[in-house]
Design a protein that fits this description.
Chain lengths: 107, 119
């Protein structure tokens, strides 16, 4: 099973700042099978990025994904108030696994 | 619009079973796999398995093999997840999600169903 590690665990930033979230895999992951989700309290996760770098429908262009192999990054160029949430990466290899999440909170 | 609507919260005793439903609308139900993911309070996301609504084929995470059953009723575009031999550690919110073929990402998700296991 591929294990995903996300860092940092918590990221404390101010609105307008840039957020850089990391997702590292224990084995190489096909870029086609790497996704990012946003989850706010009391809500279901929402797809942000699929195929490592493609934005899902309706996702603002301040969200971008990059990476390949074992290292992937989600970048939020300028944080808006509604972006403070928990972010999860997910991969599909022989089975589906999620990272433990990065919480982006207000500094 | 594409939507998954899940059944309401459940309270079960240890050793019992629970069956959660997930009704799809806005797309052809048999064209996309349905996956189930759970989340204990304050914890991360845990994948449980998938089901192909067309064939009924399933695949379960090893952790849940023997305890989980995923089924469907195509006439009402509804998927089901049944978990048996419940224990307190199964207390969680259970989500269904539509799997996008070609990449196995999930969009959209149901609103979640809280299952509480307590004596």
């Amino acid at each position: 099973e591929i294990v995903l590690t996300q860092s940092p665990g918590t990221l404390s930033l101010s609105p307008g700042e840039r957020a850089t979230l990391s997702c590292r895999a224990s084995q190489s992951v096909s870029s086609s099978y790497l996704a990012w989700y946003q989850q706010k309290p009391g809500q279901a996760p929402r797809l942000l990025i699929y195929g490592a770098s493609s934005r899902a429908t309706g996702i603002p262009d301040r969200f971008s994904g990059s990476g390949s192999g074992t290292d992937f990054t989600l970048t939020i160029s300028r944080l808006e108030p509604e972006d403070f949430a928990v972010y999860y990466c997910q991969q599909y290899g022989s089975s589906v696994t999620f990272g433990p999440g990065t919480k982006v909170d207000i500094k | 619009q594409v939507q998954l609507v899940q059944s309401g919260a459940e309270v079960k005793k240890p050793g019992a079973s629970v069956k959660v439903s997930c009704k799809a609308s806005g797309y052809t139900f048999t064209s996309y796999d349905i996956n189930w993911v759970r989340q204990a309070t304050g914890q991360g996301l845990e994948w449980m398995g998938w089901m192909n609504p067309n064939s009924g084929n399933t695949g379960y995470a090893q952790k849940f093999q023997g305890r989980v059953t995923m089924t469907r009723n195509t006439s009402i575009s509804t998927a089901y997840m049944e978990l048996s031999s419940l224990r307190s550690e199964d207390t969680a919110v259970y989500y269904c999600a539509r799997e996008i073929p070609g990449g196995s990402w999930f969009d959209p998700w149901g609103q979640g169903t809280l299952v509480t296991v307590s004596s």
